[in-house]
Amino acid sequence: MDEFSSSPLYKDNADWKDVTPIYPSKNEEVAVKIAVTEDFIDAFAYFRAVLIKNEKSPRVMALLEDCIRLNPANYTVWQYRRVCLTELGWDLKKEMRYLDDIIQESSKNYQVWHHRRFIVELMGESAVSYELRFCSEVIREEEKNYHAWQHRQWVVRTFKVPLDDELTFALKMLLIDSRNNSAYNYRYFMLTLHDKTEDKDRINIEINLAKEFIQNIPNNESAWNYLTGLLITNGITSDSNVVSFVEDLYETTPEDKRSPFLLAFIADMMLENIENQTAAEESAERAKKLYKTLQSIDPVRVNYYKHQSLLAQTMLLKSQTKVAAK
């Protein structure tokens, strides 16, 4: 990328003498009083002017870089840059290198990622491998960068990137940090994208993966959520191996060491048993005991657990009513 412009103020630049800058009016300044630097006022005065003139030229592209440096979240600047580079036949690879540097400085700026998507759309398939590699670099620096994960999702969906490669990437990220909820979400996104959520063999692989992470770190909420998501279609008690795994974990873990996520998962199993009229009374009693324990070990969610305990009793009454009506 070219270095950001270090030229003097535009009003003092001979190359811009043909442009009359448009400064904010007194009414604008009164309405929105923001402390800005002199170079900010100067650059945006000239930006206003070229916008009205509808000028599209290399010098305008340089001006836009200055404006982005001063305010990288300004939508109008980015939009005009897209108009200019399209009409000028701008070097898209050069633009990507420019965006690489901007994202390194401002990785959570929505506008720069939106602009990047536009450039990738223009470049097409040729940009895919570079984009996946770039997203990997950003994510490795900040594992839960929402924009980078979203951009990667867009790339793989738009250009139909193979499933296995992306599952491998997500697994690598989970091996770095098995609590990375973004990596679990991405993994599930890929399964959904490739219609694998009903593939029993694939889901069994994913269930075993989630169980392994839970076994290693029982307090890993992200892994518990992933396991629940994999089972939700048919019910969390639908897989006998999962039920056995969870109950074994409960029995082999000292009472004061049991994860709240383990207890909540079993409580949800009990609610499902009530719904299915499987040992409904015993399940309701166990659910209420679990929710009482959760209120003491996880006080942040105490109101939720109280609500769930009442729900267990309500579900039991409905279940008994159904049985009596038969």
Automatic annotation (TrEMBL):
Q: Name one GO molecular function term.
A: CAAX-protein geranylgeranyltransferase activity
SUPFAM superfamilies to which the protein is assigned, alphabetical: Protein prenylyltransferase (SSF48439)
Give the matching Pfam families: PPTA
Q: Which InterPro entries does the entry link to?
A: Prenyl_trans_a
Gene3D superfamilies tied to this protein:
Protein prenylyltransferase
What keywords are assigned to this protein? Magnesium, Prenyltransferase, Repeat, Transferase
Q: Per the UniProt record, which EC number(s) apply here?
A: 2.5.1.58, 2.5.1.59
User: Broadest EC class?
Assistant: transferase
CC cofactor: Mg(2+)
GO CC annotations, alphabetized: CAAX-protein geranylgeranyltransferase complex; protein farnesyltransferase complex
PROSITE patterns (UniProt xref): PFTA (PS51147)
PANTHER family in the cross-refs: PROTEIN FARNESYLTRANSFERASE ALPHA SUBUNIT/RAB GERANYLGERANYL TRANSFERASE ALPHA SUBUNIT, PROTEIN FARNESYLTRANSFERASE_GERANYLGERANYLTRANSFERASE TYPE-1 SUBUNIT ALPHA
Family according to the record: Belongs to the protein prenyltransferase subunit alpha family.
Q: What is this protein called?
A: Protein farnesyltransferase/geranylgeranyltransferase type-1 subunit alpha
Protein's organism: Caenorhabditis latens
